[in-house]
Specification:
The protein has helices at 62-65, 68-73, 84-114, 126-130, 222-236, 249-259, 263-269, 279-290, 297-303, 321-326, 347-354, 373-378, 409-417, 434-444, and strands spanning 2-5, 16-21, 24-30, 54-56, 79-83, 136-139, 145-148, 151-157, 165-173, 176-182, 203-209, 240-243, 274-277, 315-318, 334-337, 361-364, 383-386, 389-392, 396-399, 423-430, 451-453, 460-462. The protein is α/β, with parallel strands linked by helices and 463 residues long. Strand 17 and strand 18 form a beta hairpin. It comes from Oxobacter pfennigii. It is an enzyme of class 3 (hydrolase).
Length: 463
């Protein structure tokens, strides 16, 4: 029985784990690399896709699911196990990603042809993404699924995103029974709409994320912080631009703006025009409204009096690109747009038109991977290049860490400490920058007797 770390090792993106056990070859996640690691996306897989018997997907975010269409394109024909909410979300997200791949390849080809170079092919297309659906097998939380006589899986709620899952694998490999658990992305506690993460009874091996393995979320009330940022920006006559993940974070923002403010503040915000400018976010919101089995008690109670908690009178939905361009001429508005790390999509246009304005504000509400445009802005670069043009960063730059979808250091430690029968063998720390992973490794000694390991990219371990 062995595991190989093919992504998210000493980095946050590209989640992909290759396992061989009980005569089967399978994957957990197959995500895209982002930021400084993006060149890895076009590399050949370190296995033959046609040899993979099945895969399990923790959740829909592109850094966990984004290379599945490429996997299918290269010959994978096995089942993809995930929750029903994840199944629906990847149905829209992977097609959107395919569209981005096509557009970026088209853009790069134009530049190359001018130089007399050969054109480039997209990593995969919308058509490739559409082929994924026939392999998806929806799984219910806390219901054990038998893959074969030697392998079974159970999914528990990870509390990170609608449909996000902790994966528990029970494997009998040549008479040796082992339990392997993947946290996926553990959620921050009390995220709007969805439930908190669930706990497990025990495991032999644990593969845990460490995105915030060296940080604590500020104990400042995120709704107050967001409210203050909006009001201060409007008083300056500027626009507030919020780069937001289309799936998950955008819906949480809408819910917060609609329900987490007191009557006086909500009334004051009624005069502020808020624009949701992301076709993908619009489709994702419809899926969020459908999957109420993932809601927490608070959200279910809200539904008793409001059948559309993600909509309100001063929310403007932008679908067409021409309507998005009209926002360039407006002042004193809030623009929520994707992508969350500013690597693609309409957000880049809004940054181009607002970053250089002193009266504007850019507010980050999610993790920014190393090397991404969002990370460079957040870390204080004085100018950035967008669509080949250098743009001065003169706008106010804010971060609202309380809105993170990831558990912080204490949240991860609490989850590990709460494992009823502990981790018996080893803990592998992934999905975090090297510093965060190494810090979590040291801190885990306080809550677990298991050996903690920070694997390198492509490193293999016998279990």
């Amino acid at each position: 029985m062995k595991i190989r770390f093919l992504g998210a090792a000493r980095t946050v993106t590209g989640s992909c784990y290759y396992l061989e056990a009980a005569g089967r070859k399978f994957l957990v996640d197959c995500g895209m690399f982002q930021g400084n690691m993006a060149e890895h996306n076009s590399e050949n897989f370190r296995f033959f896709p046609g040899d993979i018997d099945f895969m399990i997907l923790t959740h829909a975010h592109i850094d966990h699911s984004g290379r599945i269409p490429l996997l299918v394109k290269k010959g994978f024909t096995g089942s993809i196990y995930c929750t029903s909410a994840t199944a629906e979300l990847i149905g829209i997200m992977l097609k959107d990603s395919g569209h981005i791949q096509e557009m970026e390849a088209q853009w790069e080809t134009k530049k190359r042809l001018r130089k007399g170079l050969d054109p480039v092919e997209p990593l995969y297309t919308v058509e490739d993404a559409e082929k994924v659906a026939k392999y998806v097998v929806p799984v219910t939380y806390n219901k054990t699924i038998t893959i074969d006589e030697n392998i079974s899986l159970t999914l528990k709620d990870a509390g990170h995103l609608l449909g996000s899952a902790i994966i528990i694998l029970n494997i009998n490999d040549e008479g040796k029974k082992k339990t392997i658990t993947f946290t996926g992305d553990l959620g921050n506690v009390d995220i709007p709409i969805i439930r908190n993460y669930e706990y497990i009874d025990g495991t032999d091996y644990l593969i845990t994320e460490s995105t915030y393995g060296d940080r604590l979320h500020e104990m400042r009330e995120e709704t107050q912080s967001l409210y203050d940022i909006i009001i201060n920006t409007m008083e300056r006559g500027g626009n507030l631009v919020i780069p937001s993940f289309a799936v998950g974070r955008t819906q949480e923002l809408l819910y917060i703006l609609n329900y987490y403010l007191d009557i006086e503040k909500r009334h004051k915000l009624e005069n502020v025009q808020i624009f949701m400018d992301s076709p993908l976010a619009i489709k994702a919101t419809e899926i969020f409204e459908k999957h109420k089995e993932c809601y927490d008690e608070e959200a279910l109670k809200v539904l008793e009096s409001d059948v559309a908690p993600l909509n309100f009178s001063n929310l403007n939905i932008i679908e067409k690109a021409d309507d998005s361009k009209l926002l360039n001429n407006k002042k004193g508005i809030v623009i929520i747009s994707s992508s969350g790390m500013c690597e693609a999509g309409r957000i880049k246009h809004h940054l181009k038109h607002n970053l250089w304005r002193k009266e504007a504000t850019i507010a980050f509400v999610g993790y920014q991977a190393e090397g991404t445009l969002g990370r460079r802005i957040l870390e204080g670069e004085k100018s950035v290049t967008i669509f080949g043009e250098k743009i001065a960063v003169l706008a106010e730059v804010e971060c609202v860490p309380g809105l993170s979808g990831h558990a912080d250091l204490n949240g991860i430690l609490k989850w590990v400490k709460s494992i009823k029968n502990g981790v018996k063998k080893k803990i592998f720390i992934t999905h975090g920058d090297a510093e965060a992973a190494e810090n979590l490794k040291e801190k885990l000694k306080e809550v677990s007797n298991a050996e903690a390991i920070v694997p390198d990219l492509y490193e293999t371990f016998e279990l």
